[in-house]
Amino acid sequence: MNWFKKGIPFHINLLSIFLMVVGTLCGALTWYNYSANSATAISAAQALLEQVNQKIIERFQRAYDPIFSLTDIVTSIRPIKELPALDKLHPSQDYLRQILSHNPQVFAVYIGYDTGDFFYVVNLGPEAEFRKSLNAPEEAQYGVMTVLANDPDIPRKRWVFLDKNGFSLGVHPLEKTEFDPRVRPWYINALETTSAKASELYVYSSSKKPGVTISQRFQGDDEIDGVFGVDMTVSHFAHFLQQQKFSASSQLLFFNGKGELTAHPDASKSMRVATDEKNGNPILVLGRVADLHDPIVNELFFRHQYGFWKNGMVFEVNGEKHIGQITSVPDKYAKDTKIAITVPLSEFLGPISETGKNSLIFAAIALALAMPIILIISVRIGKALRELVAETGRIRQFQLTGPVKVSSAVSEIKMLTQSIGAMKSALNTFGQYVPKALVYQLIESGKGVGLGGDRRTLTLMFTDVSGFTSMSETMSAEDLTYKISEYLKHLTIAIFDNNGTIDKYIGDSIMAFWNAPARLDDHATHACRAALGCALASRKLNEQWRQIGQKEMFTRIGLHTGEAVVGNIGSTDRMDYTAMGATVNQAARIEALNTIYGSQILITNAVLKQIGPEFVTRMVDKVLPKGVKEPVELHELLGLRDGPEALQVPEARMRELEIWAPVIGLYQAQRWEEVKEICRRLLELVPESTLATLYIRRCEQFQANPPPPEWNGTQVFLRK
User: Which residues contact 187 (CB under 8 A, 6 or more apart)?
Assistant: First the structure.
C-alpha cells in the first residue's frame, strides 16, 4: 500500500511495461505469424496444385506422345495401304500385333479405308469379358476382324483368333454386318487434319467399352485413302489417375465442357447407362459430374461453368474450406478437356492453426507464472539460449569435440543442454561408422552407441558375383573400380528402398540384414522384395553392359531368418554395428549353394514361413550345409504373383513350376524313375535347367548305390 503513497517502484513499473509490451508483442506476433503462415500455406498449396496439374499433363503427354509418333510412323508404311481380303493374311497383321505386344496401354489398332473396308487387331489378353463375348478360345491373345465393303446382305465380316505367338487358333464363320468405318467418330475426326489426332471419349463399337482413339489419315495406292487408329480404354486412364493422387483426401478427375467425365480414378464412374432415343435400348454413355453426387466436385464445376472460377481459388462446402485447380489439357491430346484437383484446405492449414493456438496458450501461461522474476529470468534465459544457438552452430559445422558449457537454473534449458550434449556426443561417435546411411538409421532408431548388443530375430542377405575373381584379373583397376561401384550402387538402392541395413561390402559381395537397428514386423517380406529388386537391378545393368560389349555380372543371393546377436563391436576408437552368430554363417552358406542348383535367389524354410503367398517359390532341396546341425529346406525365390511387371514370374516359368511341383516329394520317396521322367520333361522345356540335370544325376547314383534305410532326402555338404 505504501507503494501508491511513495510512488510505484521503478522495477515494478519496468516489470509492468515489460509485461504489457511482451504480452502485446507475443499476441501480435502470434497472430501475424498465423496470418502470414496461412497466406504462405495457401500460396504454397496453389503452387503445389498448379505443379501437380502440370506434372499430370506432362505425364499425360509422355503416355500419349509415343502413340502419336507410332501413328505417324505406321501411316507412312506400305503394308497398311493394301486392302484386306478374306482369303489371305493382311501384310500388316504381324506388325500391328507387335504394336499391341509392346504397348500394353493400347487396346486395339485398326485401319479403315475410304472404300468402307476395315481391318482390326485387338489385344484380348486383359479383356476376358470381351474374349468371352466373341466366343474366342481361352488361350486367344489377339483377335483379328476383317470387314469387306460389299453388299450388307452378303456375309462380309470374319473374326480370326491368334495365340500370343501369332498362330491361328480358329476362324469364325462369315457374318453379316452394317459396320462402316467411315461413319465412326475416329474416322471423321482424322479427316480434319493430316496429323495424328485424339478423339473425344466414346464407346467402341466392337467391345462396347469406353475409350479414346488416336487416329491419322493416310494416302494409299491406287487412289485408295484411309485412316489408321489406336484405341486406349478408360481403364488405362483410371489407372493413370490413381497413380497421380498425392494425398488421401485429394480428388482428381477429367471433365469436358458439357459436364461429362472423361476420366475418373474409378473407371466405373466414367460411364453410365442411358436409353437410345432411336430404338429405346440401353446404351453406355459418358458419366456426368453431377452423377458423382459429390458436393465438393459439384461446387467446383458450378463455379467453373458459370465463370466464377479462378485457379487456386478457396471455396467452402458444408462449412469446410477447399482449394482447387483446373487446367486445360492441350487439344492435341484431349479436346475440350480439363483436369480438376481439389484438396481440403485443412491439410495445409491444420498444423498452422493448432500451432498458433498452442503458442497463444503457452505464452499466456508462461507470462502469468513468470511475472515476479520475468526480468531476471528473461535475461538469463536469453543468455543461455544465445549460448545454445552458438553451440548448435558449431555442431552444424561438425565441431563435435568438447562439452556443452551452458549454465541455467531453468530445467528446460538444462534438459535442452543435456540433449544437445548427447546429440553432439552421439554424432561424434557415429561419425566413425561406415557407411553413413547406417549412422542415420542408428540415429533414427534411437539405438545406443555403447559397445554391446542384443539377441534378435533377423533376416540376413548375402550377395555375390559369379566369376568375379577371374573377371577382375582381366580388367584395369580403374575400370574394375568403376564397374563394381556402379553395381553396388544399384543393389544398395534396392536394399535401402526396402528398409534394409547394409552391414558391410566385401569386395563384390554385400551383407545386409532386416529388423535392426529399427524393428520391422515383416522383415522377411522386405528382404525378399529387396532380393528381387537386386536381381532386377543386376539384369538391367547386364543388359546395358551387354549392349556396349562389357562383361556381365551375375548376382547370386541367399536369405535366411533366425536369431543373431546384433550390436556394436570393436573398441572405443572404432566401432562396427554388425550381426554375429550361426544364423549369419548359415545365410552365407545358402548364398553359395546357388552354384549347385543353378539358381539366383535361395531362401530357407525359416524365411518362407514369414512371407505371404504374394511370392512365387519352389522347393529345390533339403540340405545340411557344413557347420549346420539341423537340415534346412531350400527354396528358390522366383518373383511376385502380382505387382510390378518386371518382378512377376513369366507364364513359361510358371508352367515349369507346375511340372516341377511333385519332384521333391517323389525324390524323398525314392521313386527315382518318376523323378527322372519329370526332369527329362523339364529339360525338353528348359534345356539349360541345372536343377533338372542335378536330380537326374542324383537318381542315377542312388539307383546304382541305394541310400541307407534312415535316409530322409537330406543332401549333406562337407565343404563351404
Answer: 112, 181, 215, 227, 229
Q: What's the rounded mean pLDDT across residues 7-35?
A: 58
Ordered structural domains, the chain, with CATH:
10-42+350-430 (no CATH), 75-235 (3.30.450.20), 245-344 (3.30.450), 436-649 (3.30.70.1230)
pLDDT digits (tens, 9 = 90+) for 652-700: 889 999 999 999 999 999 999 999 999 999 999 999 999 999 999 999 9
pLDDT on residue 206: 67
Q: Tell me the angle at which helices 436-445 and 411-430 cross, rounded to the nearest 10 degrees.
A: 150
Query: What pLDDT band is residue 435 in, cutting at 50, 70 and 90?
Result: very low
Mean pLDDT of 169-192: 87
Give which of 456, 464, 471 is closest to 505, Cα–Cα. 464
C-alpha cell at 18: 515489460
Contacts of 631 (CB under 8 A, 6+ apart): 622, 623, 624, 712, 714
Sign of the CA dihedral with 664 first, then 666, 671, and 676 last: negative
A 10 A CB-CB count for 401 gives 8
Average pLDDT over residues 489-505: 92
DSSP state of 223: G
569: phi then psi, degrees, rounded to nearest 5: -125, 160
Report the pLDDT value the prediction gives residue 577, as an integer from 0 to 100. 79
The structure's pTM equals 0.45
Rounded Cα gap, residues 423 and 151, in angstroms: 87
Distance, CA of 86 to CA of 477 (rounded, Å): 64
Q: Which of 404, 379, 375 is nearest to 392 (CA)?
A: 404
Tell me the torsion sign for CA atoms 644, 647, 652, 653.
negative
CB atoms within 10 A of CB 521: 9
Q: Which amino acid is at 499?
A: N
Query: What's the pLDDT score for residue 11?
Result: 41
Question: What beta strand segments (E) does 264-373 contain?
Answer: 271-275, 282-286, 314-317, 320-328, 337-344
CB-facing half-sphere around the CA of 105: CA atoms within 13 A: 16
- The C-alpha cell that represents 648 in the structure block: 512377376
Which residues touch 652 (CB under 8 Å, ≥6 apart)?
685
Contact 275, 253 (CB under 8 A): no
